[in-house]
Predict the 3D structure of the following.
Amino acid sequence: MATTADIKNGLTIEFNGKLYQIVYFQHVKPGKGGAFVRTKMKSLENGRVIENTFNSGVKIDIVRIERRPYQFLYKDDMGYNFMHSETFEQISMQEALIEGVEFLKEGQEVEVIVHAETETPLSCELPPFIIVEITYTEPGLKGDTSTNALKPATIETGTTVMVPLFIEIGEKIKVDTRTKEYVERSK
């Protein structure tokens, strides 16, 4: 069993019967009284961030999680289906567990975070940047480059992304899946 001295960013712990990942921590040693650790923890169940203060030396339960490569296969009434890239085992996940689900397309490589002891999938992360094709956008006006003007564009997954005026239908662009923003044109 670990103590608060082992807390670091990215560590997953069990707190009040639920799994949390440490997002931020700060060891505090006030002039009067005992030391403590102030933390911000993200719930692996619903993504909510909570703040908690642990007294120094308190025991915490560290949970072992693993990141595994999976490939998205298809979506059906059971959820989103993925296949492990090495063992070919298949799992199904609910939409709430997938970050950036609107950018998910068939055959795409993702990382699934799995609870190592129970083999339970906790969440699914897309790569930080993906290349997608523009399926529809209004034509831009020639010479209208005096400002950083943007226009809506529909990409192949059906999601709308704001792009610069010079982007046209059929072009491939790079999109940041975390901020859901256009990054650059792609070859």
About this structure: The first strand starts at residue 2 and ends at 3. The chain has three domains: 2-62, 65-125, 129-185.
